[in-house]
């Protein structure tokens, strides 16, 4: 029994370190990258693998110490659903600020991008 | 007649099931009481929001959906490590950030949403916009010297599978 607890503790510790490392790299990327669109890539990373492994660690810890909880699954699910949406909104704001600057490739068949559509 | 009744009472059976599961997870307890209250919420919420979501999405292949989720989680882990390496060890000037246009074969809004979400969650690519007619996605890649390769990769890896699941 104590062996299993010990193994669980090692697993939790490793997951915590992985999660913390990826969150740190995400924040570092936010500082280091030099264009708004490039910067957007850093936080999407921190919120997936970083927070994901932190939550997994919390879940394993809860189950190993007796009172298992599945709340963390819910946190992960909500995060995975909402992260792309907020990322998309930030990208759209960037597109609006770029309006007129011909930096974008045009969509096929003489269409416009929805952000720039007039209707 | 009976079919119409169930359609009216249960516009989205899958959403109802999901709401019951989410409610039980929120309470962190599976008892009859929480399940009954979850079922009440699962009946009321889809009815109240039916006007905003008139069509029922068809999931043709639920097993494929599970294997798709597994694939996406694996890709998230692999791509995370790759992007971490780029952030840590590649100079800003050496990166090749690029816009990628992905012509879509998917037509159902649910499938396109899943594809756009997948693209954003796998690091290194962020979906930024949809064309006005809904037939192309605008994606930004952090480090893609060859945008066509990114496009082909996304089409063959994710879009093909989503097409099998939803359409």
TrEMBL record, chain A:
Q: Which Pfam families match?
A: PhaG_MnhG_YufB
InterPro entries reported in the protein's UniProt record: PhaG_MnhG_YufB (IPR005133)
* Record's keyword terms, sorted: Membrane, Transmembrane, Transmembrane helix
UniProt name for this protein: Multicomponent K+:H+ antiporter subunit G
Keyword Lipoprotein recorded? no
Chain segments annotated as transmembrane: 6-25, 46-64, 70-91
Q: In which organism is this protein found?
A: Limimaricola variabilis
> What is the top-level taxon of the source organism?
Bacteria
TrEMBL record, chain B:
* Superkingdom of source: Bacteria
Q: What are the TM regions of this chain, as residue ranges?
A: 9-28, 34-53, 65-89
Per the record, membrane topology reads:
Multi-pass membrane protein
Q: Provide this UniProt record's keywords sorted from A to Z.
A: Cell membrane, Membrane, Transmembrane, Transmembrane helix
Q: Chief localization class?
A: membrane
One Pfam family, short name please?
A: MNHE
Location comes to: Cell membrane
Entry similarity comment = Belongs to the CPA3 antiporters (TC 2.A.63) subunit E family.
Q: Which NCBIfam families match?
A: PRK08965.1-2 (NF006518)
Query: What is the name attached to this protein's record?
Result: Multicomponent K+:H+ antiporter subunit E
Question: What's the source species for this entry?
Answer: Limimaricola variabilis
